[in-house]
Design brief:
InterPro entries: Extradiol_RC_dioxygenase (IPR052537), Glyas_Bleomycin-R_OHBP_Dase (IPR029068), Glyas_Fos-R_dOase_dom (IPR004360), VOC_core (IPR037523). This protein is an alpha+beta fold. Helices cover 18% and strands 35% of the residues. The relative contact order is 0.21.
Length: 319
Amino acid sequence: MYFTGIHHVSAITAQATNNLDFYRRILGLRLVKKTVNQDEPSMYHLFFGDERGNPGTELTFFEIPRAGQTRRGNDSISLTSLRVATDAALDYWQDRFTQLEVPHGTIKERAGRQTLSFEDFEGQRLMLVSDEANVGVAGGVAWDGSDVPTEHGIIGLGPVKLTVFKIERTIQFMTQVLGFRQKGTYLSDEAGQPDIIVLETGEGGSGAEIHLEHRTDLPQERPGRGSVHHVALRVNNEEELNNWVDFLNDKGISNSGYIDRYYFRSVYLKDPNNITIELATDGPGFDTDEELAHLGESLALPPFLEQHRATIEANLQPL
């Protein structure tokens, strides 16, 4: 059993309206599903992705209006990267971020690829990574419904970075339990800190990597707006997911058990540094209850919440 790559990343926002504006208007992502947190339906759960929200392209946000600002630190998912097709696309984005006053860094090589770091309006740590020199799992298809030229558009999720205090425990867990391989290392952006370790799964490549940062000088992260809640790994189908549940149980690894999220099936677990990891199937997909041409246009609810629609809609601020 192995994972085919990153499935999605789920983060926290305190302002769904501004979040929608940033990720749809500024980044040119498609809102592929406007729904609610199935465990707490009083809050929005927004899904952004490529033209149809393909697995491996989904960046999602839970809206928690009272969420405080994140105190950055250890035992966290500290960076989410987004793939673009070429190095030239990074020049386009650097200019766009300057014009739109989005905080950003300079174009820099990391792990053999050209990258551009930036932040959203809540301090969410993000990075664009070029696929020009990438080999491995394929990206998606950029949405053509924004003013971002499709040749420069975002085509999926790239490497996700974890920052941890006890790195050996995470390496052992990722390699011996989840089946990742060590690929290499690259220099940290922080002077005097250890190199970043690259782990990969499946075909490898940008869309199938976890990067590990070892820090002993940071407090534990206090999550809030601008933090990441969990990263999900791609499982081909429901049969494989059930095999993973059996495997985790046989190993004595605590997990949520099988959960039906309607658009995909999942199981949740924790790494040794208490970082939440989800295993999620590629299907059924976001066009299960909406036509592809109209994804994200109305509030979508899974069947078990449909009977509560009136109450749920009354408690949400319209987007």
